[in-house]
Amino acid sequence: MPARKIPVSKTPASLGQGFTAALPRLSPARVGLMLLWLAVLGSALGVVYTTHQSRLLVHQLELARKETAEQQVAWGQYLLEQSTWAAYHRIEHLAVSRLDMYVPDTADIVMVD
């Protein structure tokens, strides 16, 4: 089959006619269908992306909640330890045994103004 010759003319209007004649014509319905298909594909990709992001954020939230619970346990242990070390009878016992301190008699107490 011989190659089809496209007439060449020097007028600007006829320069693109040979090229466009080789392309098939698309009906508006077909163009609309292709655009709709691309919109559905884009929407599906958007759903996949947002689902992935949502799962990542939920994972980070759960890690933060776990860390918060661990910090609350540590804080409770710290408060318990602090109350143990600051107990009145313990302080009194250490003052008497290690520092040789005692409660003075009422006659030995001097009031300073």
UniProtKB/TrEMBL annotation:
Q: Name one GO biological process term.
A: FtsZ-dependent cytokinesis
From the Swiss-Prot or TrEMBL record, state where the protein is found.
Cell inner membrane; Cell membrane
| Keywords (A to Z) from UniProt | Cell cycle, Cell division, Cell inner membrane, Cell membrane, Membrane, Transmembrane, Transmembrane helix
One Pfam family name is: FtsL
Cellular-component GO terms for this entry: cell division site; plasma membrane
Q: Give me the segments passing through the membrane.
A: 31-50
- Record membrane topology: Single-pass type II membrane protein
**UniProt keyword Translocase, yes or no:** no
Domain of life (superkingdom): Bacteria
Question: Main localisation, per the record?
Answer: membrane
Q: What does this protein do?
A: Essential cell division protein. May link together the upstream cell division proteins, which are predominantly cytoplasmic, with the downstream cell division proteins, which are predominantly periplasmic.
| Binding partners and assembly | Part of a complex composed of FtsB, FtsL and FtsQ.
**Record's family?**
Belongs to the FtsL family.
Q: What PANTHER family does the entry give?
A: CELL DIVISION PROTEIN FTSL
Can you say what this protein is called?
Cell division protein FtsL
Protein's organism: Exilibacterium tricleocarpae
Name of the gene = ftsL
